[in-house]
């Protein structure tokens, strides 16, 4: 009996990952606008079990929604309105810039290979897309470096998941990063209120990024930042003279004494991370640090488990 060959792109969704996602769910914190009846609160009024408000009866309204108790007390004809539940529309934006290609020596392995930041971002995006579509929500994908490279509108069919995974599989680390500018463009493209998940190392001017985050907040999206960094970028463990190369456009190699720059480098990294974390807190966005040395399943379980527990 011949075995069924799994498409190369579907290796971004290993069985272990799908097994984890089947046991988890995602509930939105903000009211969302979708197209199907689902489990997330909508800003629109409908006919679910959660009462919203009264309004005056007008001809054509269903008499079954009249509130007889209020009418008896106030002699006013009023209708009960309810908060409609909706499916969630999710846009997952993945940074495919050159710096995401960095692969540290301490990175966790997937399929026997050390995971670069880019590989980690692809696996995270595929896993989350599977989670949302599995629970009947709509997931879309954006890949970007200095500009938007691909854009898939949110869809909820299983075939749409295959499109997302295939697009991720075909993506490769590209040019330099202009995270702030690109995210403004992404915010303009998403018209309905939903969830936006940003997966990036966020190597750009922090103030430019924070301004773009406010753009999403202005449009009333719920935000999640998955900040992907390699352990070497966080700890700078180098001791001897090293040659360093900029992965975003500069070909020249710089010979540096790590001992001379370690303290200043680590201070800048701490300041950078703190600024992203503080901005996320002010916007009531989830800030999720992801270290590539941590196995992917652990990163997913830690964050999603904590989020589910908080919702309950």
Characterization of the model:
35% of the residues are buried. The protein has a 6-stranded mixed β-sheet, with helices on both faces. A two-stranded antiparallel ribbon has the order 1-2. It folds into 2 domains: 248 residues, von Willebrand factor, type A domain (Rossmann fold, 3-Layer(aba) Sandwich); 47 residues, no CATH class. With 312 residues, it is α/β, with parallel strands linked by helices. It starts with 14 loop residues before the first helix and ends with a helix.
List the helices and strands and how they pair.
Layout (H helix, E strand, L loop, with lengths): L14 H8 L17 E17 L11 H7 L3 E9 L2 E7 L13 E2 L2 E2 L2 H18 L3 E7 L3 E8 L2 H13 L8 H11 L5 E6 L5 H13 L3 E8 L1 H5 L6 E4 L7 E4 L1 H25 L3 E6 L4 H16 L1
At the first level of CATH, what is the class of the largest domain?
A: Alpha Beta
CATH topology of the largest domain: Rossmann fold
Per DSSP, the total helix count is 9
**What percentage of residues falls in helices of 4 or more residues?**
25-40%
Gyration radius over CA: 23 Å
As a percent range, the share of strand residues is 25-35%
Q: Classify the secondary structure makeup into a structural class.
A: alpha/beta
In CATH terms, the superfamily of the largest domain is von Willebrand factor, type A domain
For the largest beta-sheet, the strand count, sense and barrel status come to: 6 strands, mixed
Q: What is the CATH architecture descriptor of the largest domain?
A: 3-Layer(aba) Sandwich
Flag low-confidence runs.
32-38, 40-52
Q: What is the overall shape?
A: elongated
Mean pLDDT: 84
